Write the C-alpha cells for this entry.
Amino acid sequence: MLSPRTPPAVTAESELPPLGVLQTSVQPDGDAELVDGLKRRDEAAFVTLLERYQGQLLRLALVYCRTRDIAEEIVQDTWLAVIQGIDRFEGRATFKTWLFQILVNRARSRAVKEGRSLSFSSITDEAETPGEPAVPPERFRTADDPWPHHWALPPHSWGESTDARLLAAETMELVDRAIAQLPPAQQQVITLRDVEGFTSEEVCNVLDITETNQRVLLHRARSRVRAALEAHFDER
C-alpha cells in the first residue's frame, strides 16, 4: 500500500544569463522506470520519486502560500493525486512536468479558496504588461554616441568570484528575500528556472504559459534579483 512522504548592446527585454549557481539540483534520468514501478504499486519506486522531487515541490509550494505547514499539505495532496491518478498517466508529458502541474493546480486552488490569489490569467497579464526597464537607461550610451546603447556605467566588479559570493549564506539570504519580493508570476518562473533548474519548455508546460511570456518574466525577475545583489555589493 503506497502512502505519500566592450560589451554588446543590451536591450530592455534581452535575456540575462542565468543565476546558475542558485540551482540546487540536477534533474535525474530514469523516471520512466520508476513510473512503471509506481503503476505496479512498488513502494520502493514511490519512495525514490518522493526523495527525488519532495524538496523541489515544497520550495515551489512555498511560492504560493508562504506558510510551511500549508505548503506541506499541498505537497502531500499532490503525492496523493499522483498515487490515485498514476494509472491514467499516459506519458504524453514527462512525469516531472505532470507532477509539477498537479502541484501548481493544487496550490492555485488552495490560494483561491483562501482569497489570496489573482485570476489564473494573472501570469499572462503580468508578462504582457509593459514593465520598467531592466537597467536604468542612463547607464547606457546615447544614440549619438560612437558606441550607442553600450554600457556607460557598467556593473561594478564584486571582487571575489561570483560563485563564491553567491554561495555565502548571507548572500543566499539576500537572494531569497529578493525573490520573495517579486511579483507572483516572476517569482514562479525564476524559482523553477534558476532555483530548480527547469528548462524553459518545462516551465511553459508546468505554468501553461507561452515561451515569450516565460522569457519576459524570467528576464524581469533576474534583473530585479541582480539589481538587489549589485546594490548589496556596492554597499560592501
About this structure: The chain has a mean pLDDT of 79. The chain has two domains: 24-113, 156-236. DSSP finds ten helices and no strands in the chain.
